[in-house]
Design a protein that fits this description.
72% helix, mainly alpha, 358 residues
């Protein structure tokens, strides 16, 4: 196959992946905007600024649907800590929130199937609980540091509105904590869902779709099926790649889809989707200041332990077969509706990026 044919195949595969993801992602953007009307940053801080195991559970339940990426979650977590929230609640919120989000959930259903989406949400919840309990236990064992040293200034942890590509970094800071729905709050919510969020995800989605198109084009179907060491070698590789790497929960979905198509086990793919958003370098360095060094190490180990436990359970049980059965298998032939939605998605992403620069 010559270079022209390879390029043509790459473009077809990339467009097909975009078309399959577009309807669900557009619906997710709208739902994220509506959700943002109710759950703004001040509301989250107010409801998690207390202590107790109940706060850990609440932190996970609140964080899972919020469309905050790994860097966008940092200023919210810092606010929770400054308002008296325990380290466990901060860790639980930081672990569970960037793994999902309503936009990511819809996109996961669209490309990876409803079973994978449910598993992903459940893991985010369990992972947040485990991280919160581990960090809280370390604090109870005497690993506390002075609150003054941990409660860093807003300027050091908050992302700048103009230059930062973090989900929710622009719209949330100027809202009050009122729960009253008004036309202006509705407009702000839709602006967040249709301008801020697409702009924030522009590069993550673009890179993710391009990499997914390359894998679908150049990787053989059994690429990951016969590696030395089997599935456990994949667990190690995906852990080492994901821990320091910034992986967006939505932008990583096309890559996860291509990994599965190339023969990677669902468990190894879940490690990639869990560890990246929850434990990249920006998150780790911020948590080091917020909850202390030893608690941060416990946080990272809890992420790894949960990832591996779930991966082994998924791959060595019938769930992996169910995931493969319900996954939307890749087909270069897409219908007219999907192609139109893909065009709308591209225009929305580009238009939102241009508007945010002005």
């Amino acid at each position: 196959m010559d270079a022209v044919n390879w390029i043509e195949k790459f473009l077809i595969n990339t467009w097909s992946l975009t078309s399959e993801m577009a309807p669900y992602l557009l619906l997710g953007f709208v739902m994220a905007g509506l959700l943002q009307i109710f759950f703004n940053e001040e509301w989250v801080r107010r409801h998690l600024g207390q202590r107790g195991f109940r706060q850990i559970v609440k932190a996970c339940l609140i964080g899972i649907p919020l469309p905050l990426c790994s860097c966008g979650v940092i200023p919210v977590a810092a606010g929770i800590r400054r308002q008296g929230g325990q380290r466990g609640a901060v860790a639980a919120f930081t672990a569970s929130t960037p793994q999902t989000g309503v936009d990511s959930i819809f996109a996961t259903v669209g490309m990876l199937g409803w079973v994978f989406a449910i598993v992903r949400v459940c893991i985010a919840f369990v992972n947040g609980i485990v991280a919160g309990v581990v960090v809280e236990k370390l604090e109870e064992d005497g690993q506390r540091t002075k609150d003054e040293g941990l409660r860093t200034k807003d300027e050091g942890l908050r992302t700048k509105d103009e230059g930062q590509t973090c989900c929710g970094s622009e719209e949330s800071s100027d809202r009050n904590s009122s729960f009253v729905i008004s036309p202006s709050s509705f407009v702000r919510g839709l602006r967040f869902g249709l301008v801020t969020l697409p702009s924030d995800l522009f590069w993550a989605l673009t890179v993710g779709l391009l990499i997914a198109g390359m894998i679908a084009t150049f990787a053989p179907a059994d690429l990951f099926a016969n590696l030395p060491g089997g599935r456990f070698s994949l667990y190690v590789v995906m852990t080492l790649i994901s821990l320091p790497l910034y992986v967006c929960s939505t932008g990583s979905i096309p890559m996860a889809f291509s990994f599965l198509q190339a023969g990677m086990s669902p468990g190894a793919v879940l490690i990639f989707l869990i560890a990246g958003p929850a434990s990249n370098m920006a998150t780790v360095t911020s948590l080091w200041k917020l909850i202390g060094g030893k608690a941060t190490v416990g946080y990272i180990l809890s992420i790894i332990g949960t990832c591996w436990a779930v991966a082994i359970f998924i791959d060595f049980s019938g769930i992996s077969l169910l995931v493969n059965e319900t996954m939307h298998h890749h087909d270069t032939g897409v219908n007219l509706f999907q192609q139109v939605m893909a065009g709308v998605l591209i225009l929305l992403l580009v238009g939102a990026k241009v508007l945010r620069r002005r």
